[in-house]
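Good morning C.,

I know you're traveling, so I'll keep this short. The sequence:
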Amino acid sequence: MLRYLPLILKNGLRNRRRSILTISSIAASMCLLGFLLAMYHAFFLGQATAESSLRLVTRNRISLATVMPISYRDKIKTLPGIKEVMVYQWFGGIYKEPKYMFARFAVEPDRFFAVYPEFKLQEEQKQAFLRERTACLVGRKLADRFGFKLGDRITLVGDIFPVNLDFYVRGIYDADQNNENMYFNLQYLFDSLGPGRKDFAGTFATIVNSPEDVNRVSQAIDDMFHNATVQTRTETEQNFVLSFLSFLGNIKMILLSICAAVTFTIILVCANTMAMSVRERVKEIGVLKTLGFTNGAILTIILGEAAFISLLGGFVGWIIANGLAYGARQAPAFIQQLKTLTIQPSVTVALLVLSVVIGVGSSFLPAYRASKTSILDALRYTG
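The C-alpha coordinates, ready to paste straight into the viewer:
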Protein backbone atom coordinates (compact mmCIF):
# COMPACT_ATOMS: atom_id res chain seq x y z
CA MET A 1 0.00 0.00 0.00
CA LEU A 2 2.89 2.37 0.72
CA ARG A 3 3.87 2.41 -2.94
CA TYR A 4 0.50 4.00 -3.73
CA LEU A 5 0.66 6.49 -0.86
CA PRO A 6 1.59 9.57 -2.98
CA LEU A 7 -1.30 8.79 -5.35
CA ILE A 8 -3.68 8.32 -2.41
CA LEU A 9 -2.69 11.63 -0.81
CA LYS A 10 -2.99 13.51 -4.09
CA ASN A 11 -6.33 12.02 -5.15
CA GLY A 12 -7.81 12.20 -1.65
CA LEU A 13 -8.06 16.00 -1.77
CA ARG A 14 -8.55 16.37 -5.50
CA ASN A 15 -12.15 17.54 -5.24
CA ARG A 16 -11.48 20.15 -2.57
CA ARG A 17 -15.06 21.22 -1.95
CA ARG A 18 -16.29 17.68 -1.43
CA SER A 19 -13.24 16.76 0.61
CA ILE A 20 -13.67 19.77 2.90
CA LEU A 21 -17.36 19.04 3.39
CA THR A 22 -16.68 15.37 4.08
CA ILE A 23 -13.86 16.16 6.50
CA SER A 24 -16.05 18.77 8.23
CA SER A 25 -18.97 16.37 8.66
CA ILE A 26 -16.71 13.65 10.05
CA ALA A 27 -14.94 16.16 12.29
CA ALA A 28 -18.23 17.46 13.71
CA SER A 29 -19.46 13.95 14.37
CA MET A 30 -16.20 12.77 15.92
CA CYS A 31 -16.05 15.94 18.02
CA LEU A 32 -19.52 15.31 19.42
CA LEU A 33 -18.79 11.63 19.89
CA GLY A 34 -15.50 12.33 21.65
CA PHE A 35 -17.05 14.92 23.96
CA LEU A 36 -19.91 12.57 24.88
CA LEU A 37 -17.48 9.71 25.55
CA ALA A 38 -15.41 12.04 27.71
CA MET A 39 -18.55 12.91 29.69
CA TYR A 40 -19.41 9.23 30.04
CA HIS A 41 -15.92 8.50 31.32
CA ALA A 42 -15.97 11.43 33.75
CA PHE A 43 -19.42 10.56 35.14
CA PHE A 44 -19.31 6.79 35.32
CA LEU A 45 -15.70 5.62 35.03
CA GLY A 46 -13.75 8.37 36.80
CA GLN A 47 -12.03 7.59 40.06
CA ALA A 48 -12.91 9.56 43.19
CA THR A 49 -10.10 11.21 45.16
CA ALA A 50 -8.80 9.47 48.27
CA GLU A 51 -10.72 11.84 50.55
CA SER A 52 -13.91 11.87 48.49
CA SER A 53 -14.05 8.07 48.44
CA LEU A 54 -14.29 8.11 52.25
CA ARG A 55 -17.17 10.60 52.42
CA LEU A 56 -20.84 9.74 52.60
CA VAL A 57 -23.80 12.05 52.13
CA THR A 58 -27.05 11.43 53.98
CA ARG A 59 -30.28 13.13 52.88
CA ASN A 60 -33.99 12.75 53.40
CA ARG A 61 -35.21 9.61 51.65
CA ILE A 62 -38.20 11.47 50.17
CA SER A 63 -36.44 14.44 48.65
CA LEU A 64 -33.30 16.50 48.88
CA ALA A 65 -35.50 19.54 49.50
CA THR A 66 -36.99 17.97 52.66
CA VAL A 67 -34.92 18.58 55.78
CA MET A 68 -34.03 16.22 58.62
CA PRO A 69 -33.74 16.75 62.39
CA ILE A 70 -30.29 18.00 63.33
CA SER A 71 -30.30 15.47 66.18
CA TYR A 72 -29.57 12.76 63.60
CA ARG A 73 -25.99 14.01 63.50
CA ASP A 74 -25.15 12.84 67.02
CA LYS A 75 -26.90 9.51 66.45
CA ILE A 76 -24.92 8.89 63.27
CA LYS A 77 -21.69 9.74 65.09
CA THR A 78 -22.22 6.82 67.49
CA LEU A 79 -21.83 4.25 64.71
CA PRO A 80 -18.44 2.50 64.56
CA GLY A 81 -16.08 3.36 61.72
CA ILE A 82 -17.07 7.04 61.53
CA LYS A 83 -14.46 9.74 61.99
CA GLU A 84 -16.73 12.82 61.88
CA VAL A 85 -20.23 13.96 60.88
CA MET A 86 -21.21 17.48 59.85
CA VAL A 87 -24.41 19.27 58.86
CA TYR A 88 -24.16 20.45 55.26
CA GLN A 89 -26.86 22.91 54.21
CA TRP A 90 -27.33 24.45 50.77
CA PHE A 91 -28.16 28.15 51.11
CA GLY A 92 -28.65 29.36 47.56
CA GLY A 93 -29.26 33.10 47.53
CA ILE A 94 -28.27 35.75 45.03
CA TYR A 95 -24.90 37.49 44.85
CA LYS A 96 -25.36 40.86 43.08
CA GLU A 97 -27.24 39.34 40.12
CA PRO A 98 -28.70 35.87 39.46
CA LYS A 99 -26.13 35.28 36.72
CA TYR A 100 -23.31 35.32 39.29
CA MET A 101 -23.93 31.76 40.41
CA PHE A 102 -21.72 29.66 42.66
CA ALA A 103 -22.34 27.10 45.39
CA ARG A 104 -22.91 28.46 48.91
CA PHE A 105 -23.10 26.10 51.86
CA ALA A 106 -23.71 26.56 55.59
CA VAL A 107 -21.45 24.21 57.55
CA GLU A 108 -20.23 23.60 61.08
CA PRO A 109 -16.74 25.15 61.26
CA ASP A 110 -15.54 23.00 64.16
CA ARG A 111 -16.23 19.83 62.15
CA PHE A 112 -15.57 21.14 58.66
CA PHE A 113 -11.83 20.52 58.39
CA ALA A 114 -12.14 16.98 59.74
CA VAL A 115 -14.67 16.13 57.03
CA TYR A 116 -12.71 17.97 54.31
CA PRO A 117 -9.05 17.43 55.22
CA GLU A 118 -7.93 18.15 51.63
CA PHE A 119 -8.89 21.83 51.93
CA LYS A 120 -5.66 23.73 52.52
CA LEU A 121 -5.33 27.28 53.85
CA GLN A 122 -3.14 29.21 56.25
CA GLU A 123 -3.59 28.53 59.95
CA GLU A 124 -4.56 32.12 60.82
CA GLN A 125 -7.27 32.02 58.15
CA LYS A 126 -8.57 28.75 59.54
CA GLN A 127 -8.71 30.18 63.06
CA ALA A 128 -10.55 33.28 61.84
CA PHE A 129 -13.16 31.07 60.22
CA LEU A 130 -13.57 29.09 63.42
CA ARG A 131 -13.75 32.19 65.58
CA GLU A 132 -15.92 34.68 63.67
CA ARG A 133 -19.62 34.06 63.16
CA THR A 134 -19.81 36.06 59.91
CA ALA A 135 -16.61 34.62 58.43
CA CYS A 136 -16.67 32.68 55.19
CA LEU A 137 -14.26 30.61 53.12
CA VAL A 138 -14.02 30.79 49.34
CA GLY A 139 -12.15 28.55 46.95
CA ARG A 140 -9.09 29.85 45.15
CA LYS A 141 -10.72 29.56 41.75
CA LEU A 142 -13.85 31.34 42.97
CA ALA A 143 -11.71 34.12 44.45
CA ASP A 144 -9.86 34.54 41.16
CA ARG A 145 -13.13 34.57 39.24
CA PHE A 146 -14.73 37.37 41.28
CA GLY A 147 -11.61 39.07 42.60
CA PHE A 148 -12.35 38.22 46.23
CA LYS A 149 -9.64 39.17 48.73
CA LEU A 150 -9.27 38.63 52.45
CA GLY A 151 -11.51 41.04 54.32
CA ASP A 152 -13.94 41.59 51.43
CA ARG A 153 -17.62 41.80 52.28
CA ILE A 154 -20.04 39.48 50.49
CA THR A 155 -23.80 40.00 50.71
CA LEU A 156 -26.19 37.23 49.77
CA VAL A 157 -29.87 37.95 49.23
CA GLY A 158 -31.88 34.97 50.40
CA ASP A 159 -34.29 33.10 48.15
CA ILE A 160 -34.75 29.68 49.76
CA PHE A 161 -34.28 31.28 53.17
CA PRO A 162 -35.94 34.70 53.71
CA VAL A 163 -32.83 36.39 55.11
CA ASN A 164 -30.08 38.58 53.70
CA LEU A 165 -26.67 37.72 55.10
CA ASP A 166 -23.40 39.65 55.13
CA PHE A 167 -20.12 37.75 55.21
CA TYR A 168 -16.45 38.65 55.36
CA VAL A 169 -13.86 36.65 53.50
CA ARG A 170 -11.50 35.27 56.15
CA GLY A 171 -9.97 32.43 54.21
CA ILE A 172 -9.14 31.36 50.66
CA TYR A 173 -8.59 27.63 50.42
CA ASP A 174 -6.89 25.45 47.82
CA ALA A 175 -8.28 22.08 46.74
CA ASP A 176 -8.15 19.89 43.67
CA GLN A 177 -11.95 19.73 43.66
CA ASN A 178 -14.75 21.90 45.05
CA ASN A 179 -12.55 24.97 44.78
CA GLU A 180 -15.35 27.18 43.47
CA ASN A 181 -17.53 27.02 46.57
CA MET A 182 -18.30 29.33 49.47
CA TYR A 183 -18.71 28.03 53.04
CA PHE A 184 -20.02 29.88 56.08
CA ASN A 185 -21.15 29.25 59.65
CA LEU A 186 -24.38 27.28 60.01
CA GLN A 187 -25.12 28.92 63.37
CA TYR A 188 -25.11 32.33 61.69
CA LEU A 189 -27.91 31.09 59.43
CA PHE A 190 -29.87 29.64 62.36
CA ASP A 191 -29.54 32.87 64.35
CA SER A 192 -30.86 34.86 61.39
CA LEU A 193 -34.00 32.73 60.96
CA GLY A 194 -37.17 32.86 62.97
CA PRO A 195 -37.77 30.63 66.02
CA GLY A 196 -39.62 28.00 63.97
CA ARG A 197 -36.85 27.48 61.42
CA LYS A 198 -33.85 26.33 63.37
CA ASP A 199 -32.00 23.12 64.13
CA PHE A 200 -32.55 21.30 60.85
CA ALA A 201 -30.24 19.67 58.35
CA GLY A 202 -30.51 19.40 54.59
CA THR A 203 -27.73 16.81 54.40
CA PHE A 204 -25.13 15.23 56.62
CA ALA A 205 -21.56 14.80 55.38
CA THR A 206 -19.81 11.84 57.01
CA ILE A 207 -16.20 10.77 56.67
CA VAL A 208 -15.32 7.19 57.59
CA ASN A 209 -12.03 5.69 58.68
CA SER A 210 -11.31 3.41 55.73
CA PRO A 211 -12.71 2.32 52.35
CA GLU A 212 -13.87 -0.93 53.96
CA ASP A 213 -16.24 1.07 56.18
CA VAL A 214 -18.04 2.86 53.34
CA ASN A 215 -20.70 0.28 52.44
CA ARG A 216 -21.17 -0.93 56.00
CA VAL A 217 -21.61 2.55 57.48
CA SER A 218 -23.85 3.65 54.62
CA GLN A 219 -26.21 0.74 55.26
CA ALA A 220 -26.01 1.19 59.03
CA ILE A 221 -27.08 4.84 58.84
CA ASP A 222 -30.17 4.06 56.77
CA ASP A 223 -31.01 1.07 58.97
CA MET A 224 -30.82 3.27 62.06
CA PHE A 225 -33.63 5.51 60.78
CA HIS A 226 -35.57 2.85 58.87
CA ASN A 227 -38.54 2.99 61.25
CA ALA A 228 -38.24 6.71 62.04
CA THR A 229 -40.72 9.33 60.90
CA VAL A 230 -37.99 10.86 58.75
CA GLN A 231 -36.10 8.17 56.87
CA THR A 232 -32.73 8.67 55.21
CA ARG A 233 -30.82 7.74 52.11
CA THR A 234 -27.04 7.51 52.33
CA GLU A 235 -24.65 7.22 49.39
CA THR A 236 -21.09 8.03 48.51
CA GLU A 237 -20.24 11.61 47.69
CA GLN A 238 -19.63 10.71 44.06
CA ASN A 239 -23.00 8.99 43.71
CA PHE A 240 -24.72 11.87 45.48
CA VAL A 241 -23.34 14.33 42.94
CA LEU A 242 -24.38 12.08 40.07
CA SER A 243 -27.89 11.82 41.52
CA PHE A 244 -28.50 15.37 40.32
CA LEU A 245 -28.15 14.07 36.77
CA SER A 246 -30.99 11.62 37.36
CA PHE A 247 -33.38 14.57 37.25
CA LEU A 248 -32.66 14.67 33.51
CA GLY A 249 -33.38 10.97 33.06
CA ASN A 250 -31.16 7.97 32.41
CA ILE A 251 -28.01 9.90 31.49
CA LYS A 252 -26.02 6.76 30.75
CA MET A 253 -28.61 5.58 28.25
CA ILE A 254 -28.95 9.08 26.75
CA LEU A 255 -25.20 9.39 26.17
CA LEU A 256 -24.90 5.93 24.65
CA SER A 257 -27.96 6.49 22.44
CA ILE A 258 -26.58 9.76 21.09
CA CYS A 259 -23.22 8.12 20.43
CA ALA A 260 -24.93 5.33 18.48
CA ALA A 261 -27.01 7.84 16.50
CA VAL A 262 -23.93 9.92 15.66
CA THR A 263 -22.03 6.84 14.49
CA PHE A 264 -24.91 5.65 12.33
CA THR A 265 -25.37 9.10 10.79
CA ILE A 266 -21.73 9.52 9.88
CA ILE A 267 -21.74 6.06 8.27
CA LEU A 268 -24.57 7.18 5.99
CA VAL A 269 -22.79 10.45 5.16
CA CYS A 270 -19.54 8.70 4.34
CA ALA A 271 -21.26 5.97 2.33
CA ASN A 272 -23.06 8.52 0.18
CA THR A 273 -19.95 10.63 -0.34
CA MET A 274 -17.70 7.70 -1.21
CA ALA A 275 -20.28 6.23 -3.59
CA MET A 276 -20.47 9.56 -5.43
CA SER A 277 -16.71 9.77 -5.61
CA VAL A 278 -16.38 6.26 -7.02
CA ARG A 279 -19.10 6.80 -9.64
CA GLU A 280 -17.29 9.87 -10.93
CA ARG A 281 -14.07 7.91 -11.36
CA VAL A 282 -15.26 4.84 -13.25
CA LYS A 283 -13.55 5.96 -16.48
CA GLU A 284 -10.41 6.79 -14.52
CA ILE A 285 -10.47 3.25 -13.15
CA GLY A 286 -10.66 1.94 -16.72
CA VAL A 287 -7.58 4.00 -17.64
CA LEU A 288 -5.70 2.69 -14.58
CA LYS A 289 -6.49 -0.86 -15.64
CA THR A 290 -5.12 -0.23 -19.13
CA LEU A 291 -1.91 0.93 -17.46
CA GLY A 292 -1.60 -2.37 -15.63
CA PHE A 293 -3.20 -1.67 -12.25
CA THR A 294 -4.81 -4.78 -10.85
CA ASN A 295 -8.21 -5.01 -9.22
CA GLY A 296 -6.56 -5.27 -5.81
CA ALA A 297 -4.40 -2.21 -6.42
CA ILE A 298 -7.40 -0.12 -7.48
CA LEU A 299 -9.38 -1.30 -4.45
CA THR A 300 -6.43 -0.42 -2.21
CA ILE A 301 -6.14 3.08 -3.68
CA ILE A 302 -9.84 3.88 -3.28
CA LEU A 303 -9.99 2.51 0.27
CA GLY A 304 -6.77 4.35 1.12
CA GLU A 305 -8.28 7.63 -0.03
CA ALA A 306 -11.37 7.00 2.09
CA ALA A 307 -9.22 6.14 5.12
CA PHE A 308 -7.08 9.26 4.61
CA ILE A 309 -10.05 11.63 4.43
CA SER A 310 -11.78 9.94 7.39
CA LEU A 311 -8.64 9.97 9.51
CA LEU A 312 -8.11 13.64 8.77
CA GLY A 313 -11.70 14.37 9.78
CA GLY A 314 -11.31 12.32 12.95
CA PHE A 315 -8.13 14.19 13.87
CA VAL A 316 -9.77 17.58 13.38
CA GLY A 317 -12.75 16.42 15.46
CA TRP A 318 -10.40 15.25 18.21
CA ILE A 319 -8.74 18.69 18.34
CA ILE A 320 -12.12 20.43 18.61
CA ALA A 321 -13.32 17.97 21.26
CA ASN A 322 -10.23 18.74 23.35
CA GLY A 323 -11.04 22.43 23.06
CA LEU A 324 -14.61 21.85 24.24
CA ALA A 325 -13.39 19.74 27.16
CA TYR A 326 -10.97 22.49 28.16
CA GLY A 327 -13.78 25.06 28.03
CA ALA A 328 -15.99 22.82 30.19
CA ARG A 329 -13.23 22.49 32.79
CA GLN A 330 -12.85 26.26 33.01
CA ALA A 331 -16.58 26.99 33.28
CA PRO A 332 -18.36 27.09 36.66
CA ALA A 333 -19.84 23.71 37.47
CA PHE A 334 -21.78 22.20 40.37
CA ILE A 335 -21.13 18.69 39.06
CA GLN A 336 -17.50 18.23 39.96
CA GLN A 337 -16.99 15.44 37.44
CA LEU A 338 -17.15 18.09 34.71
CA LYS A 339 -14.02 19.68 36.20
CA THR A 340 -12.10 16.51 35.28
CA LEU A 341 -13.48 16.33 31.74
CA THR A 342 -10.66 15.22 29.43
CA ILE A 343 -10.35 13.23 26.23
CA GLN A 344 -8.75 10.07 27.55
CA PRO A 345 -6.04 8.32 25.47
CA SER A 346 -8.38 5.37 25.01
CA VAL A 347 -11.07 7.72 23.66
CA THR A 348 -8.52 9.34 21.32
CA VAL A 349 -7.53 5.95 19.88
CA ALA A 350 -11.18 4.92 19.61
CA LEU A 351 -12.10 8.09 17.70
CA LEU A 352 -9.28 7.76 15.19
CA VAL A 353 -9.81 4.04 14.68
CA LEU A 354 -13.56 4.51 14.37
CA SER A 355 -13.17 7.27 11.80
CA VAL A 356 -10.93 5.02 9.66
CA VAL A 357 -13.27 2.04 10.06
CA ILE A 358 -16.27 4.16 9.09
CA GLY A 359 -14.47 5.59 6.05
CA VAL A 360 -13.19 2.23 4.82
CA GLY A 361 -16.36 0.35 5.69
CA SER A 362 -18.70 2.80 4.00
CA SER A 363 -16.61 2.89 0.81
CA PHE A 364 -15.76 -0.79 0.55
CA LEU A 365 -18.83 -1.94 -1.41
CA PRO A 366 -18.78 0.78 -4.11
CA ALA A 367 -14.98 0.51 -4.32
CA TYR A 368 -15.14 -3.28 -4.70
CA ARG A 369 -17.73 -3.04 -7.45
CA ALA A 370 -15.74 -0.40 -9.26
CA SER A 371 -12.53 -2.44 -9.06
CA LYS A 372 -14.33 -5.38 -10.69
CA THR A 373 -15.56 -3.30 -13.62
CA SER A 374 -14.02 -4.40 -16.90
CA ILE A 375 -11.91 -2.01 -18.94
CA LEU A 376 -14.47 -1.82 -21.74
CA ASP A 377 -17.41 -1.14 -19.38
CA ALA A 378 -15.41 1.46 -17.48
CA LEU A 379 -14.42 3.37 -20.59
CA ARG A 380 -18.00 3.29 -21.93
CA TYR A 381 -19.45 4.47 -18.59
CA THR A 382 -21.39 7.73 -18.91
CA GLY A 383 -23.02 8.00 -15.44
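Safe travels,
E.
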